Amino acid sequence: MTSTNLTARSLVDMAEGEISREIFVNAEIYEQEKERIFSRAWLYIGHESQIENPGDYFVSKMGEESVILTRDFAGKIHVFLNSCAHRGMRVCRYDEGNTSAFRCPYHAWTYKTDGTLVGVQDYDNAYQPPFDKSEWGLVEVPQMANYMGTIWATWDEDAPPFEEYLGEATVAFDHGFCAWDGSDAGTELLGSTQKWRVPCNWKFIAENFSGDWLHGVSHRSVDLIRLGPSGEVGRRDDFGQLVVNGFPEGHGILYSLYPNKQERTEYAMSPETSEYFQHCWERRLKKLGDKAGTCPLVGTIFPNMSFHAQQPRTLLVSHPTGTNETEMWRTYFVDKSAPESVKQFLREYYMRYSGPAGMTEQDDMENWNYASEASRGMIARRRPYHYKAGLGVGSPHSELPGVVTEQPITSEQNPRFFYKRWADYMDLGSWDELRDAKSVRFWERAS
Predict the structure, then answer these.
(1) CATH assignment of the domain containing 61
(2) Does residue 22 fall inside a structural domain?
(3) Domain contains 385
(4) Is the domain of 135 the same as that of 212?
(5) Which of 51, 60, 261, 404 is most solvent-facing, going by the fewest CB within 10 Å?
(6) Contact indicator for 208, 441 with CB cutoff of 8 Å
């Protein structure tokens, strides 16, 4: 794996629940992640509501690669590498917008919104014999998927279909990314994507949202000022029973098993929003019955897309930009059918709660920053991280897929799933091998 001939599995000891700090601070390991993980895994690109009209585009990222999510004038969605075929200049330098064509500002090569090269400066005189323009269009991802409005792509033509990649974590999408009432009425983004950089390794962030309920102690100030949806002192949310839900694909979800009582009191600080939420909850009860209160709260889809699925309802992608730097992109969602007053309240509320100015995010960033800084030293790197909570306790569940650990047991099973899968990607060469490795339960696997 590295110049010292280490394997990833020698750094991730699932049997003992210990993980080497090297995987967070070693520059050579980070360079290999770009090839072994971010060029093979399915990655979140954006949401279809960002490109509703022909010519709409949104510039996203896949690892360190800049990509363009766009809808062509035939209505088809594409994901292109944001790099001119001539000299590599970014053909799209704005975050989002609408265009009839992508024109490179360096030498004016011009591409249609379907990626076709249509314009080359001085083509007739400069190129004798003329080259075939059809072979020099924008590079398009070999696979793309639209799942409940979320757009995903992979650079690996041999990767499994997206729903196979999600595995049984599709349940989290089906329950968490639908409208609040459980219907297929759809969601949309509130405003644009918030972006900022954090001096830490991307894996700290992905792990945090995969089901780490112990770090809630960091958010004590949020509880005290009643910032959570419950609006009560000392409690951010009325979650019901919490369970961690891990998957062999590396995904991790923290679920709420909420009792099916008739009244919900969320967002009491906004009577209109509270009333809307209550109406949605009543419709959800009628539609889903006993399953209404089974909701994903937070989770991570391997490798780097994390989300809050209910309150607040936001999505975070931790784009790696270096061994010790991550660019965080946070977007906010709301029901398409919600009243405008509700959308406006949630827009303001979500930004107080999450994002670069949000109190919970600021708490988390301080943790990740100092954990990264304190792990880079020579002495610190000799000591592994401790992931032993709930080791070997997870089991099948009557309602939820995957491996589940319920309260009152505290478990770090989801980060263990995440790092087991990380090691699989880093050490294994083919998707057949990755499929085989996925079938091995994490607690049965030695380092």
Answers:
(1) 2.102.10.10
(2) yes
(3) yes
(4) no
(5) 261
(6) no
- Alpha-carbon distance values, 49 to 99, 127, 240, 291, 341 (Å): 16, 41, 32, 28, 20
Domain coverage including residue 359: 8-38+168-444
In a domain, 159, yes or no: no
**Within 127-213, where are the H helices?**
162-166, 170-176, 202-208
Question: pTM above the 0.90 mark?
Answer: yes
Q: Indicate whether 281 pLDDT > 50.
A: yes
Single residue among 94, 129, 144 that ends a domain in this structure: 144
Residue 41's alpha-carbon distances to 100, 139, 212, 378, in angstroms, are 31, 18, 23, 32
Residues 49 and 34 in one domain: no
Distance CA 90, CA 46 (A): 19
Residues 403 and 419 in one domain: yes
Place of tokens 């995010």: 361
CA gap 288, 176 in Å, rounded: 13
Q: How far apart are CA 4 and CA 397, in angstroms?
A: 42
Assign residue 372 the CATH number of its domain.
3.90.380.10
- Residue 229: per-residue pLDDT: 63
CB 228 within 8 A of CB 237: yes
* Tokens standing for residue 363: 């708490």
- Judged by average pLDDT, the poorest of 62-76, 135-149, 208-222, 272-286 is 208-222
Query: Most distant CA pair in the chain: distance in Å?
Result: 76
The single-letter code of the amino acid at 236 is R
Same domain assignment for residues 118 and 203: no
Whether residue 211 sits in one domain with residue 88:
no
Residue 209 lies in a domain: yes
Average pLDDT, the chain: 89
Instruction: Give phi and psi for 404, each to the nearest 5.
Output: -120, 140
H/E stretch holding 29 reads helix 27-36
The 10 Å Cβ neighbour count of residue 214 is: 11
Alpha-carbon distance 336 to 84, whole Å?
36
Helix (H, G, I), strand (E, B) or coil at 104: coil
Residue-wise pLDDT for 152-207, tens only, equals 999 999 999 999 999 999 988 787 788 888 888 888 888 889 999 999 999 999 99
Backbone angles phi, psi at 158, to 5 degrees: -90, -5
Structure tokens at 312: 């607040």
